[in-house]
């Protein structure tokens, strides 16, 4: 231990980066030299999901949260906050991260004991010029986007089962992310948005997960002309799609309960396609036989009845570049 303590503080901080934040904070009790070293770490990960006694915070937990305001690193590369108990300080901690020019911010707040408890994030988050990656998870997190929103560096955005303050919150947020490349949206029971609108010219990867419990039934509007990767899981039977063509699409994974034609028409330039449809109707769906996948090279299909099989033959008969075909006769996908 004495030999390690002889190292410079800068080197010791680099060593702490290899440790979980909880362990790094615990080193503060070793000596006066170690007391504040963790506060210089540019990466912090506070995970309360693993706290067995969620009704009472440990003294160490209180220590590290109370001292977060004293964090000394001029630039915070990454901050991960995971909560499963009610906290009044999330807004303050996010504000601190923004003031430290945070680059990666992840907030997961799953306070299941109070469905009406909402976390309002600071307005400064939506104008953080340094932010590159943002993840918000949990129905208690309220996405309330101010008119002054501007995220010029944001490239990756994940919105997982969050609540929106109004119908225009998501569209407003996306419209001021000029370099956004990857977007993940997970819609669940508490989703209060009627129509999902994704209009992002710069987007390259889009992932949509629409749970069967989602209350919305007004569909999705997708305008992503630069998209390379498209992933959709839709376990509802009511969601409709209005999708603009994706001429640069390379890979698509489409898992829907029924009616995939709106999606198929928009991804005819795809090279690799995985398609699963839980279609149990005894009637021929009668989709447009003119859908042709001119660039398709790799295809994986999940087939559950003869009608769907015949439809796929019609849709794919002109795929001249097809080299790999994988058929899966699974009965259920969900």
TrEMBL record:
Residues 91-236 form the F-box/LRR-repeat protein 15/At3g58940/PEG3-like LRR domain. Pfam families: F-box (PF00646), LRR_At5g56370 (PF24758). InterPro entries: F-box-like_dom_sf, F-box_AtFBL13-like, F-box_dom, FBL13/AtMIF1-like, LRR_dom_sf, LRR_FXL15/At3g58940/PEG3-like. It comes from Camelina sativa. This is FBD-associated F-box protein At5g56690. The lineage of its organism: Eukaryota, Viridiplantae, Streptophyta, Embryophyta, Tracheophyta. Residues 4-42 form the F-box domain.
């Amino acid at each position: 231990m004495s030999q390690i303590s002889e190292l410079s503080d800068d080197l010791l901080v680099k060593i702490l980066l290899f440790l979980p934040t909880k362990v790094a904070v615990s080193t503060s009790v070793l000596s006066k030299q170690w007391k504040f070293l963790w506060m210089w770490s540019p990466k912090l990960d506070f995970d309360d999901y693993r706290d067995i006694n969620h009704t009472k915070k440990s003294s160490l937990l209180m220590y590290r949260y109370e001292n977060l305001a004293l964090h000394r690193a001029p630039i915070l590369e990454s901050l991960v906050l995971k909560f499963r108990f009610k906290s009044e300080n999330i807004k303050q901690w996010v504000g601190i991260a923004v003031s430290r020019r945070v680059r990666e911010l992840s907030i997961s707040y799953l306070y299941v004991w109070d469905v009406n408890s909402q976390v309002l994030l600071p307005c400064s988050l939506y104008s953080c010029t340094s932010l590159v990656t943002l993840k918000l998870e949990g129905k208690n997190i309220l996405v309330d986007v101010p008119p002054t929103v501007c995220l010029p560096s944001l490239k990756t955005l994940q919105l997982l089962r969050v609540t929106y303050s109004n119908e225009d919150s998501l569209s407003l947020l996306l419209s001021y992310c000029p370099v956004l490349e990857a977007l993940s949206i997970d819609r669940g029971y508490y989703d209060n948005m009627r129509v999902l609108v994704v209009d992002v010219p710069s987007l390259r990867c889009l992932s949509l997960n629409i749970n069967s419990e989602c209350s919305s039934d007004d569909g999705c509007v997708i305008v992503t002309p630069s998209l390379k990767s498209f992933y959709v899981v839709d376990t509802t039977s009511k969601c409709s799609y209005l999708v603009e063509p994706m001429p640069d699409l390379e890979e698509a994974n489409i898992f829907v309960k029924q009616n995939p034609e709106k999606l198929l028409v928009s991804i005819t330039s795809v090279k690799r396609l995985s398609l699963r449809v839980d279609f149990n109707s005894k009637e021929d769906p009668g989709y447009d036989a003119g859908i042709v996948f001119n660039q398709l090279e790799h295809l994986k299909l999940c087939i559950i009845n003869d009608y769907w099989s015949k439809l796929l033959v019609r849709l794919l008969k002109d795929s001249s570049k097809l080299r790999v075909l994988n058929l899966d006769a699974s009965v259920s996908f969900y």
